[in-house]
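The following block was generated as part of the benchmark described in Methods. Ligand: DLL.
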Amino acid sequence: MERYYQPEIETAPREQIQAWQDERLVRQVRHVWDSVPYYRRLMEEKGLTPDDIKGTADLHKLPFISKHDLREAYPYGMLAVPLKDCVRIHSTSGTTGKRVIAYYTQHDIDLWDDCCARAIVAAGGSDEDVCQISYGFGLFTGGAGLNGGSHKVGCLTVPISSGNTERQIMFMMDLKATILCCTPSYAAYLGESMKEMGLTPDQIPLKAGIFGAEAWSEEMRKSIEETLGIKAYDIYGLTETSGPGVAFECSEQTGMHINEDHFIAEIIDPDTGEVLPDGEEGELVFTALDKEAFPLLRYRTRDVCVLSHKPCSCGRTHVKMCKPRGRTDDMLIIRGVNVFPSQIETVLLNQGYPANYQIIVDRVNNTDTLDIQVEMTPEMFTDSLAEITGRQKKLVEGLRSMLGLTAKVTLVAPKSITRSEGKAVRVIDKRKI
Ligand code: DLL
């Protein structure tokens, strides 16, 4: 039977959700107008005052904000409460430019923890569970977010953070961890290491995993589920919106319910900014309805996604987002063709390869080149050149039919591509360097 952390909210009638959103949006717009000069200026530039926003029907009038604005306002420009009311910061892992800093009041952390608790309960968690948190702790939000959620659910929480794979496995086996929280690429690596140690899925105590922070395909889900003998649930979020738990998967595993009592989601055309109807693909935009310290109105995530209001068999009524299909800024344009790394992953995993690969893009004589290094499994590893050439050819064909592009594929030895303990680095675009 489906269980909920906050049933009255998670299964609330749509009219109730609508009423919460209308009321909270009006309050939040007033809050940012009163306390964040940067926002007030953006609104004034559009000729708006808080009186123009009477509910969600007026949301489209508000200006968008983007990472650019958050960087402009660095470090304190977006703060909406006195600094003395903030109790913590987290920060994005961006490698270029200024990092974005997110601020939290204790109330912000409480609501964030609730969102993560909903995700853990949706994955079958309860106070009977041992929850191993192998997301990084520190400025990254993954560790702290799931840790807070796990406490709220009452699980025995193991805040082990990422890294030190041998110790991870020892704790998991000795403490009989039942829920694992980490990035999907780290889950795959842990699974691979356990398999090498001779552990079979029935010997591994885990029953569920809550994996997110990076894109992962359905094929990767299947492979992790088989190796670890678990059900693998997706979880989504970003530092700017607090962290993980903006959306999470339920037992139906066909998309993630967005916590609509706290966030309004929109899908827009990334070029025109026009709001698109349900079911159309576009850029995901979030408005946080009750964040105190670091409120965000119409924040452009750059994630490409589709929303669905189809009723869900789990009983939750909140809208679902699909697995992000890529990021508008991750989308590679190779010889004029749009390519998402997730499309490449799908082809590889469909042909039985592990999710260990690297995509290298370069420009030689004014022409883009696409090189994909793909790791073989130990079973595939062979001296036979003919066999390797045959495999490479099959991959090139699969990629051509998926992408409409010819890529160079190199099969490499098992374990030769560096494993990641956090977010995997899949793409090296040398054209930008
Ligand atoms: O990755 C927060 C998080 C931690 C989410 C743990 C889930 C679990 P950032 O480092 O700010 O925050 O990165 C946010 O990561 O805009 C997406 O592009 C990507 N992302 C997050 N979750 C998913 C997911 C955390 N489930 C950025 N699937 C987002 C695909 C995801 N991409």
